[in-house]
Write a structure and sequence with these properties.
Elements: H1 8-27, H2 30-35, H3 42-47, E1 53-55, H4 70-75, E2 79-85, E3 92-96, E4 104-105, E5 111-112, E6 124-127, E7 131-132, E8 138-139, H5 145-152, E9 157-161, E10 182-184, E11 189-191
Parallel strand pairs: 1-2, 1-6, 6-9, 9-10
Antiparallel strand pairs: 2-3, 4-5, 7-8, 10-11
Amino acid sequence: MRDNGDSADKQTLRILARDRRRAFVAALDPLAHRLAFKVLPSPLARRIADAQVVALYMGLDDEAPAQRLAHQLSAMGKTVALPRVLDRLGSMDFLRWQPDDILLPGPFRTSHPEPGDGPVTPDVIIAPLVGFDRALNRLGQGGGYYDRAFARLPDALRIGIAWSVQEQEAVPADPWDLPLHMILTEVELIEGAAQ
């Protein structure tokens, strides 16, 4: 059984990154916060033009609010989905969602749509993160949920959304960690070299 990459280095980086993110968001102008992540930059919109299902997440606390992209994605004709945590072992799936749908409470303060017609398979997974580096390595919460989803859906475009202050010089990557294809912050879109 593999461990979930929760090394001491990653734990320390998570603590520092969360503190930095919390301070940044607390100091952010409320108007700037409300406007952040409401629009997909043109290069990203072009990259997902052929995608049918785009998975977002509901930002908690001071996380970058990915859910703000839902209206634009819907206007582009995309099916929007949210993750549903299935168990404490790192399993989740994705359920169709529209911004006005009522959400059900899930584990770890998450929320998800009604199951409806069941899970959908995203072409694009927009993931939360605690930290990232310019090599597009992602430091997550430590539960391995997105790592497992990325491994299960290797053809999905992997995009992280974060506040710029979450950038680290280097994020430790375990052999099973898949780098992101892109990272969107409030100030830039970072793309990998081999896009």
